[in-house]
Each structure stands twice: as C-alpha cells, then as structure tokens.
Amino acid sequence: MNKRKLLTILLCAALLCSGAAAYFYTPYPVAPQPELLHISMIRRTEQDAENTLTYENITDRIDPDTLIRQLTSCKATRLPVYQSSYTLGDMLYEIDVLYDEQPLHFVLGKDYLVCEYHRLQNAQDLINVLDAMTAAPTANP
Predict the structure, then answer these.
(1) Is 53:47 a contact under the CB 8 Å cutoff?
(2) H or E element at residue 13
(3) In DSSP terms, which residues pair with 97 in a beta bridge?
(4) How confident is the model at residue 140, as a pLDDT?
(5) Is residue 129 situated within a structural domain?
(6) How far is 3 from 41, CA to CA, in rounded Å?
(7) Residue 19 within any structural domain of the chain
(8) Number of folded domains in the chain?
(9) Distance from first CA to last CA of the chain, Å, rounded?
(10) Could you tell me the pLDDT band of residue 81, with boundaries at 50, 70 and 90?
C-alpha cells in the first residue's frame, strides 16, 4: 500500500473518531418539546423529628407550567454513567414524567441523574426552582 492511501485511510479514521467523540460529549436536550411532557409525580426527601428520611409527595405544590419550562431546558450527557444504586439520603427530589408517552425518571441530589444513567448538566437550576416552589430549601447531601 502506498503512502498516499495509508494517509487517506488514517485521515478518514481520525475524522470518524473525532466526529463520534464530538457527538458523545455534546449534551442533548432531555425533553425539548413542552407539549409532549406530562408530569406524573414529584417526591422530595424529608427528615422527620427522629432524623428518619422519608418521601413527601409534593406534586400538588408545584406549578406544572414552571416545572415543564425548566425540564425542557435540561440537558444531559450522552455517555451513560453507571452506578450500583443510590440511597434516600443521596436524593433531594425525584421527578417522574412522561415524554412522548415514554417514562423519564429524574433523580436530583448528590449525583444529579436523569433516566438513571445520564448526568444532568443543569440540575442545580432545577433544584433551585423546586426549592422556590416549595418554599423550603433542601440541604445538599
């Protein structure tokens, strides 16, 4: 094989690899179309008088339009993040929604995950909006 063909093959391989890397490292919008988004449930971890962590369903305390606007601005990494599990103490909020008839599960807290395997880029903004709507700031774990 002559040098010119080898150089062409190496250049094509480099372009393909850089294109794939750019794709995988570019965040994607999680739920970009608000009309396809339906909020099912929002839970928040609470600590009672005995320091026991429990869930509180706060769906009825949240303005759905404000939350939908915030969720449509959320971006996540394309590369999956694997972890064995998370505990109630690691979480601040859990949000269950349907987007285009498909379930999405947001876990906001220590690791800021969405769909359980992709890290949210702007999770703290979402936490701040939820804190403002419930008028009770959460303590970051």
Answers:
(1) yes
(2) helix 3-25
(3) 39, 104
(4) 47
(5) yes
(6) 61
(7) no
(8) 1
(9) 59
(10) confident
